[in-house]
Amino acid sequence: MEGGVPEADVSAFRECLSLSWKNPYVLRLAFSAGIGGFLFGYDTGVISGALLYIRDDFKAVDRQTWLQEAIVSTALAGAIIGASVGGWINDRFGRKKAIILADALFFIGSVIMAAAINPAILIVGRVFVGLGVGMASMASPLYISEASPTRVRGALVSLNGFLITGGQFLSYVINLAFTNAPGTWRWMLGVAAVPALTQIVLMLMLPESPRWLFRKGKEEEAKEILRKIYPPQDVEDEIIALKESVEMESKDDSSSNKVSIIKLLKTKTVRRGLYAGVGLQIFQQFVGINTVMYYSPTIVQLAGFASNKTALLLSLVTAGINAFGSILSIYFIDKTGRKKLLLFSLSGVIVSLVVLTVVFHQTTTHSPMVSEIESSKFNNTCPDYRTALDAAQWDCMKCLKASPECGFCASAGNKLLPGACLISNDTTEDQCQKEQSRQWYTRGCPSKNGWLALIGLSLYILFFSPGMGTVPWVVNSEIYPLRYRGICGGIASTSNWISNLIVAQSFLSLTDAIGTSYTFMIFIFVTVAAIVFVIVFVPETKGLPIEEVENMLERRTLNFKFWQRNSGSDQALTQKNVSF
């Protein structure tokens, strides 16, 4: 066991803050590696705003939902490949080289996207960016975890989560900054090359993970780094414990170089770790977070806010709440523990999704009617509306679902009164907006309750971010034995990106097929399943040194009393458990 098992509480947060003057070296390691998380977050956020303007430049993208989903999801496909090979690269070549390679791929992808002349080239750039993001998503928290003192490990890995949300927030600021600039979306996507290049320079000046160095037999180099990380009174115990752990692993026939999925699943501690780690990554995506981040401007438009700029501005608020939530995680994760934070987070997500479901149902069922008089004021009335036998029953939502694509020009003065149903194109939009008080809708309809959708989105992110936003990455950075940490982290990250791809690829199609409200209702049922999963399968790792986590998993049984710590030998006397 590495050192003792300190009690992690609020003092751990204060200790994390004190590192800025007591041991700035540790913070330097964490921030430099955390730029990978920043890139992860920036790409997640920037594409949501850029997509609004890509649709304006490339009409094929505007007309075809599958192309919008392809621009988002090809990056996720690249991330799946990056995460799956990233585990092997981390174990074979080290955490540092994996992060540098991820940055190089991200840089290349950003340049390609900024210079794209058609959707196909844009998609190629998205694949490169995805490869980099997927690789960095597991390498950055792994590097931070292995280079952090035990007491503040959770807070420092949560710092990576904060940089993810900080990247998302900055992406919305960048989106707003370039709304009136020539080449809007090109600047939005190209700016990401700057932090990627910055991290390459910083990582070249930093050491490799000390635990990886020990594993590769470079003990003196590892000891030198550990002496810079740990206080003098703790460092020798850490070195001895880590050395003993590596010596034990070297006697094990199953090394990370000969690993197979069968061997992983036959190893009890690894299997139990994978249950928790992979499951958390899957549920992180299936409760719907990245539909909110990728498509938040679109969701805001679905709620009845028409202009691109307004949608981006309101999405900036949700991104700011996301960043604030990750700061709460840094404070609470070593105070309340990983598991309680997850359960609180998921409970709040359910409440928020109920609000979103109700609001979007009301918005779609009570949209303004279409007026024949209003429509006749324009020369390009929607063909389907003009020939419809039930034209008197048409409302805004029915107009938006017409073919060829039609839009709704809201009534002058009061957007909730009957408006015009017109063919959707730039000319029509300009004609509609000539009257200052008219607004043009193509994604959602005017609603008096649109602000409630914003409250629901804000609550969703505020509850999600401190728990489900950061804890899965923290747990996956600390729950696996050292010899399997890279490969298992890669498996977990790959499952995250596959889940992300499924959700992102299907969200707009689902909203078209069954409506936004029923789509959010599906997320409610998934979140309930996630709560059950956390209670049964996820162990508490608060305050445990990394090497002690393996011993805890060896002893662990399924625990239905989640408020009691599941790591002590006296557990059998205090609670009933079911072995697995």
From TrEMBL:
The chain crosses the membrane at residues 29-54, 66-86, 98-117, 123-144, 156-178, 184-206, 273-296, 311-334, 341-360, 451-475, 487-508, 520-538. Residues 29-542 form the Major facilitator superfamily (MFS) profile domain. Keywords: Membrane, Sugar transport, Symport, Transmembrane, Transmembrane helix, Transport. One of its GO terms (molecular function) is myo-inositol:proton symporter activity. Pfam families: Sugar_tr. One of its GO terms (biological process) is transmembrane transport. One of its GO terms (cellular component) is plasma membrane. It is found in: Membrane. It is a multi-pass membrane protein. InterPro entries: MFS_dom, MFS_sugar_transport-like, MFS_trans_sf, Myo-inositol_Transporter, Sugar/inositol_transpt, Sugar_transporter_CS. Its main location: membrane. Belongs to the major facilitator superfamily. Sugar transporter (TC 2.A.1.1) family. NCBIfam families: SP (TIGR00879). This is Inositol transporter 4. It comes from Medicago truncatula (Barrel medic). The lineage of its organism: Eukaryota, Viridiplantae, Streptophyta, Embryophyta, Tracheophyta.
